[in-house]
């Protein structure tokens, strides 16, 4: 049955022995939404994402991604999403063209489609003079842009981005978010984790995790109004103090 939600999560938990990394989180992400999954390092964001992309089994609770159950249909989940990790998922010892061809093959694209996508991607990024260069030679910001584009090769319904702008300057971060906007405008759902609270302002809605739990969830505008502050960073600080 067709639903308005791209992601639906109910009481999802992940435990490692006696330690609970993710504690009974519940939320939904609408189709075509830019959803920010925020929190400090160690809050449980990446652990939660790993469950949603089908590479880590939940200890408890349920979740569906693109209509597929993350516990019982993890392979179908993986085929329906794009994913970009903090490590950018590219191979440094391959050229840009070779990376595109390699991942296009993994995603099951035909040789003809890979050629078409390669030409389009290189043209969109303006990398004609660097297409045959090894990825390791690219500046960090360009690696991120290429990795994001590669994650979209198979035109997934949902893209998961794990700390995609870590370690780059503010101008490059803004350029990367412009790429995210363009993709969201095409109807793609964007699920992005970050510990940069100012990036929350770019999202349609955000959740804020503290010590494995979602302690706030709404649009940035409504959260700032709720906490009577002017920035998402102040929301986070106020929330953290309340938890303490």
TrEMBL record:
The keyword Transmembrane helix applies. Keywords: ATP-binding, Membrane, Nucleotide-binding, Transmembrane, Transmembrane helix, Transport. It is a multi-pass membrane protein. PROSITE patterns: ABC_TRANSPORTER_2 (PS50893). GO terms for cellular component: membrane. It comes from the Bacteria. One of its GO terms (molecular function) is ATP hydrolysis activity. It is found in: Membrane. Residues 7-236 form the ABC transporter domain. Pfam families: ABC_tran. InterPro entries: AAA+_ATPase (IPR003593), ABC_transporter-like_ATP-bd (IPR003439), P-loop_NTPase (IPR027417). Signal peptide: none annotated. This is ABC-2 type transport system ATP-binding protein.
